[in-house]
Amino acid sequence: KQPYYNFQQPIYGEVLGGSAGFPQSGAGNYLQHGHGVTMSGSVNYVASPTLVIDGTFGYVSSHQLLFPNKFNEKYGLDTLKIPGSNQGPLPWAGGVPNFRISNYVPMGMSYPALEYKQPLYEYVANVSKIKGAHSIRVGFDAFYQFPDHIELRDNSYFFDGSSTIRNGGPGANNYNAVADFVLGRHNNAYQWIQVLQPYLKMRWWQYAVYARDQWQVNRKLTLNYGTRFERYPYAYRDHRGAERYDVDTDRVLIGGLGNVPKDQGVDVGIGRFAPRLGIAYRANERTVVRLGYGISIDPDSFRRLRDNYPATVSSTFNAPSTLEAAGTLRTGIPAIVVPSLDSGIITLPSAVNTNTVPTKFNRGYIQSFNGTVQRDIGMGFNLNIGYVGTRAIRQTALVNIN
Questions:
Q1: Do 226 and 275 contact (CB within 8 A), yes or no?
Q2: Helix (H, G, I), strand (E, B) or coil at 91
Q3: Angle at 215 between CA 210 and CA 219, to 5 degrees
Q4: Measured between alpha carbons, how far is 211 from 227 in angstroms, rounded to an integer?
Q5: What is the CA radius of gyration of the chain?
Q6: Which one, of 78, 75, 59, lies nearest residue 67 by Cα?
Q7: Nearest-angstrom CA–CA distance, 232 and 216
Q8: Residue 319 and residue 237: Cα distance in Å, rounded?
Q9: How many of the other CB atoms lie within 10 Å of CB of 384?
C-alpha cells in the first residue's frame, strides 16, 4: 500500500483560492490524498517433468480524493447567496464557485471535490507441456474493472469585459473584465451535477483464451506461433445498463429500464482472434535472423459512457450578444432539471453534450511486425539491424457527429 498526502495553500488564500503554485495547470487543489494498493499471488504445480500448471491472481487499486478550499461549506449558496450554486451533497458540492476573469488566475476552487476508486482484478491460468521438439502452452485470462467515481464539477462564471464596453468603442481589456466581475455581470456560466449517487459506477469484463507452440524445427530454425481469442462484453453499471444516445431515434436509452435491454441493443460481436508468429533462423554460428508478426485487439473499455447524460447533467449559459451579460451573480444559475428515467427512453436536450457508440461496435486492432539481423562482429560486440512497425486498423476515437 502506497499512501500519499498533499496540501497546497491557494495563492489567493483560503476563501478566494486559486491554482496554488501552478496556475497554468488549473489543478492546484487545496487538499489531495489517497493511496494505491497492489497485490498478487501465484501457484505452480509440476504434474510431471513435462507438464506444469500455473495460475496467477492480481489486484490493483487506486483511491484518490481531491478537495478544494472551503469544501465543507456551500459557500456560493449560503455565504455569497448565489442562487443555483453548490447543487448536491457535501463535501462534493461544497466550496467557492469558480470565477474566471480574463487574463487573471481564476479565483475560487481550482478543481471540484472528487473521489475516484479504481480497482481491477486479473485471473490467469496456464498449462505448459513439453513434447519432443514442441513446448506448448495454453491458458485463460480474465480481467475485471469496476471503478466508482463521484465528481460534482464546479460552478463557473466567466468575465471577459464584454458587458462593460461601448457599442462601436474599443474592445474589452483587463479593466473591463474586472469591472464585469465587480458588477457581477458574467458573459458565460457553467453548471454540472452528478445525478447518480453516491457514485458513478461502471463495470466491465475482458476475457481471453490462448494457445502457443514453440517448435524447435531443427538446430537452425525455431518457430513460435499461436493465437488469442479475446472477448470484450459491453459495459454496464452496477445495477443496470449504462446510458447511450441512439442516433437513429434521437433519444437517450437507459439500459435495463422500461423495455430497453441492458446493452441498449449494442452488438459487440462474439470476440476476435489475435494470431502471433515468430521465426528465428541461425544462418551460421555468428548470424541470427528474426522475424515477427502479431495482432493486438484495441482494448477500449467503453469508459467514456461513465458520464453520459443523464447520469450527469451539465448546462452552459451564454450571453445573447457580445454587449450583454448572460446573467448576474444576483440571479445566479438556473437549477438543473433532472428528467424522469422510468421509461428508459428520454430526449437529449439541445444544449447537452454526450457520448455514444455505434449500434454495431466493430472493434479495431493493431498489427505489429518486425525483422532483425544480429551479427557477432568479434571482440565481444554484437551488431543488430532491425525494422519495427505498427499499424492501427479502426482505432477507437471520438468523432463529433453533431
A1: yes
A2: coil
A3: 160
A4: 6
A5: 28
A6: 75
A7: 34
A8: 37
A9: 10
Residue-level pLDDT at 22: 54
Pairwise CA distance, residues 364 & 193, whole Å: 34
pLDDT, one tens digit per residue, over 42-55 is 999 999 999 999 99
Cβ count near 138 (within 10 Å): 15
Cell 517448435 identifies what position? Answer: 215
Q: What is the helix (H) or strand (E) element at residue 393, kind and residue range?
A: strand 381-393
Please list, in sequence order, all residues whose beta carbon lies within 8 angstroms of the beta carbon of residue 387, skipping any fewer than 6 positions away: 370, 371, 372
How far apart CA 373 and CA 322 sit, in angstroms, is: 65
Q: List the grid coordinates of 129.
A: 507441456
Read off φ and ψ for residue 162, nearest 5 degrees: -70, -20
CA dist., res. 263 & res. 237, Å (int): 10
DSSP string, 122-139: EEEEEEEEEETTEEEEEE
pLDDT in tens, 197-225: 889 999 999 999 999 999 999 999 999 99
User: H or E stretch including 183?
Assistant: helix 174-183
> Which one-letter DSSP state was computed for residue 234?
P
**pLDDT under 70: residue ranges of the chain:** 19-29
Phi-psi region of 180 (alpha: psi -120 to 50; beta: other; left: phi over 0): alpha
- Are the CB atoms for 26 and 19 separated by under 8 Å? yes
How many other CB atoms are there within 10 angstroms of residue 381's CB atom? 8
Spacing of C-alpha 89 from chain mean position: 24
20 phi, psi to nearest 5 deg = 50, -140
Can you count the helices (H) and strands (E) in the chain? 1, 23
Q: What is the distance between the alpha carbons of residues 266 and 306, in angstroms, rounded to a whole number?
A: 16
Between CA 377 and CA 384, with CA 379 as vertex, the angle to 5 degrees is 35
What is the rounded distance in angstroms from the CA atom of residue 326 to the CA atom of residue 329?
A: 10
Global pTM value: 0.82
At CA 245, angle to CA 244 and CA 250, rounded to 5? 150
Give me the phi and psi of 25, to 5 degrees please: -80, -30
Cα 218 from Cα 181, distance rounded (Å): 80
Residues whose CB is less than 8 angstroms from the CB of residue 132 and which lie 6 or more positions away in sequence, other chains included: none
